[in-house]
From TrEMBL:
NCBIfam families: argH (TIGR00838). The lineage of its organism: Eukaryota, Fungi, Dikarya, Ascomycota, Saccharomycotina. Residues 366-434 form the Argininosuccinate lyase C-terminal domain. This is argininosuccinate lyase. It comes from Sugiyamaella lignohabitans. Keywords: Lyase. PANTHER family: ARGININOSUCCINATE LYASE.
Length: 459
C-alpha cells in the first residue's frame, strides 16, 4: 500500500470503497490556490519562530510555486493516496523539493486548521466575485427604472389588479431587496474573513506561532480567538448558504412576476431570444426557461442549506469528518448563485416592455381608492368614503358601465351629495400615481429618490 500521511499506526489496508468514500480531492482540489497560499504564509510563520531556516523556507516557497503551476496548467498528477487537496499538495511538494524539507511544513499544523483556512480563503474570493455580479444586477434594475420612468402598469395584491404604479417602482422594489442582499453579503464576508490557522488540531500551537502575523499575511481581518472553535466553526458556510438561499428567493419572486407578465394573456414584457428557448414539438412556442430556472434554483440552494444544517447538528466539539460535508453544497451554492445572478442580469437588461399593453391593463376601478380619497379631502372620514366609493363601483357594475368614470355627476350626487363636478379629476392614472409622493411611493419624485438611495449604497 502507498504511504499514507497518517499511516504510522496502521497495519491493515483501507477498504477501496472506504478510500473513495473518504476522499474529498475530486471536489476540494478547486481550493488548490488557497491551500498553497496558506502553506506559504504558515511556513513563513514557522521560519519566524526558528522552526525553518532560510534555505528550507526558500526551497518550500519555490516548491509551492511549482506545485501551483502544475495545477494551473492541468499537469498535476493525482496519485492513489491523495486523500484531499492538503495531502496531494504536500505529497507533490515532497517529490519536488525532497521530503527532508517538505516534511517540516506541517509542524504544529493540522489538516483541521488547514482546511478551515482554505475554505475561508476560497469563500472570500468567490463571494467577492459574486458581489461584483450582484452590484451589476442592481445597476441594471436602477438604470432601466430611470429610463422607463413614464411607463404605468397595474400593481397587484393577491395577483388581483389593485392600484396603478410605475413600472420603475416595480423595478425599484426588486432592486431594494437586492441592495439589502448586498449589505447582508458584506456582513457575511466580515465573518468569513477570520483566521483559524495556527489553532493546530484543536488545542492550540505548541511553538508560539504568531497567529496575528499569519492572519495579516493571508488578508484576514482577525484571528479566531478559540482554537477549538477555529477548527470546527462552519457558521460561515451556513451563512453563505443562507445568504445564497435568500438571494435566490428574491430572484425567484421577480422571475415569477415576469413569467406571468410574459404570457400572451398579460403581454407586458417579452424576453430576449437569448434567454428563451423553443419547444421541440410546438413551433410557435417561446418559453421563459431562464426565469423558470431562476425560480427553480431557489429550491436547490435552500435544500443545500437545510442539508448542511442537518449534517452540522449535534456534531461533537472540534473537528469531525462530518464537516467534510460542507464542501459540495457550498461549492454548488456558489456556482448556482453566481450563474443565477449573471443570468438575471442578462434577462433584465434585455427584456422589452410593452408600455401600451401595461397601460391597457389599467382599469378605472383601480382608482376606487382615489375616489374614496377625493371625499377624504373634503373632510369625510375614510371608513365612510371607502363605503361610498364601493357603492359607486357597485352602481357602475349594475348599470353595465365600463367603469366608475362613466357615472354622471347626477348619479354621483345620488350616491353622496358631497360629490362635485371636480370628481372627474379623480379618473386619471397619472394623477393617482403622482399623489403618492411620500417616501417609498410610486410618484416620480419618490421613485427617483429610491433609485438615488440604492445607487448610493453601491460601492
Ligand atoms: N478533507 C478534510 C475535510 O475536508 C480535511 C480535514 C481532515 N482532517 C482530519 N482530521 N481528518 O474536512
Amino acid at each position: 500500500a502507498e504511504l499514507k500521511l497518517w499511516g504510522g499506526r496502521f497495519t491493515g489496508g483501507t477498504d477501496p470503497l472506504m478510500e473513495l468514500y473518504n476522499a474529498s480531492l475530486p471536489y476540494d482540489k478547486k481550493m488548490y490556490v488557497a491551500d498553497l497560499e496558506g502553506t506559504r504564509v504558515y511556513t513563513s510563520a514557522l521560519h519566524k519562530v526558528g522552526l525553518l531556516n532560510d534555505h528550507e523556507l526558500s526551497e518550500i516557497h519555490r516548491g509551492l510555486k511549482l506545485v501551483e503551476a502544475e495545477w494551473a496548467e492541468g499537469k498535476f498528477v493525482e496519485k492513489p493516496g491523495d486523500e484531499d487537496i492538503h495531502t496531494a499538495n504536500e505529497r507533490r511538494l515532497g517529490e519536488l523539493i525532497g521530503r527532508d524539507i517538505s516534511g517540516k511544513v506541517h509542524t504544529g499544523r493540522s489538516r483541521n486548521d488547514q482546511v478551515a483556512t482554505d475554505m475561508r480563503l476560497y469563500v472570500r474570493e468567490e463571494l467577492a466575485k459574486i458581489r461584483a455580479i450582484l452590484v451589476g444586477l442592481i445597476k441594471v434594475f436602477v438604470s432601466r427604472a430611470e429610463k422607463e420612468m413614464d411607463i404605468l402598469m397595474p400593481g397587484y395584491t393577491h395577483l388581483q389588479r389593485a392600484q396603478p404604479i410605475r413600472w420603475s417602482h416595480w423595478l425599484s422594489s426588486h432592486a431594494t431587496y437586492l441592495a439589502n442582499d448586498l449589505e447582508r453579503l458584506d456582513q457575511v464576508i466580515k465573518r468569513v474573513n477570520r483566521s483559524p490557522l495556527g489553532a493546530g488540531a484543536l488545542a492550540g500551537h505548541p511553538y508560539g506561532v504568531d497567529r496575528e502575523y499569519i492572519a495579516d499575511n493571508l488578508g484576514f481581518e482577525s484571528v479566531i480567538g478559540n482554537s477549538l472553535t477555529a477548527v470546527a466553526d462552519r457558521d460561515f458556510v451556513v451563512e453563505t448558504l443562507f445568504w445564497g438561499s435568500l438571494v435566490l428567493n428574491h430572484l425567484s419572486k421577480f422571475s415569477e412576476d415576469l413569467i406571468i407578465y410574459s404570457t400572451a394573456e398579460f403581454g407586458f414584457i417579452k424576453l430576449a431570444d437569448a434567454y428563451s428557448t423553443g419547444s421541440s414539438l410546438m413551433p410557435q412556442k417561446k418559453n421563459p426557461d431562464s426565469l423558470e430556472l431562476l425560480r427553480g434554483k431557489s429550491g436547490r440552494v435552500f435544500g443545500q442549506l437545510a442539508g448542511f444544517m442537518m449534517s452540522l447538528k449535534a456534531t461533537p466539539s472540534t473537528y469531525n469528518k462530518d464537516l467534510q460535508e460542507d464542501k459540495e453544497p457550498l461549492f454548488d451554492c456558489l456556482t448556482t448563485v453566481s450563474h443565477s445572478l449573471s443570468i438575471a442580469t442578462g434577462v433584465i437588461s434585455t427584456l422589452s416592455v410593452d408600455a401600451a399593453k401595461m397601460r391597457a391593463a389599467l382599469t378605472m376601478d383601480m382608482l376606487a381608492t382615489d375616489l374614496a380619497d377625493y371625499l377624504v379631502r373634503k373632510g369625510v372620514p375614510f371608513r365612510e368614503t371607502h363605503h361610498i366609493s364601493g357603492e359607486a363601483v357597485a352602481t357602475s357594475e349594475k348599470l353595465g358601465l365600463s367603469g366608475i368614470d362613466q357615472l354622471t355627476l347626477e348619479q354621483y350626487k345620488q350616491i353622496d351629495a358631497r360629490f362635485d363636478a371636480d370628481v372627474v379629476n379623480v379618473f386619471n392614472f397619472e394623477t393617482s400615481v403622482e399623489r403618492r409622493t411620500a417616501t417609498g411611493g410610486t410618484a416620480k419624485s419618490a421613485v427617483l429618490a429610491q433609485l438615488k438611495n440604492i445607487a448610493s449604497s453601491l460601492n
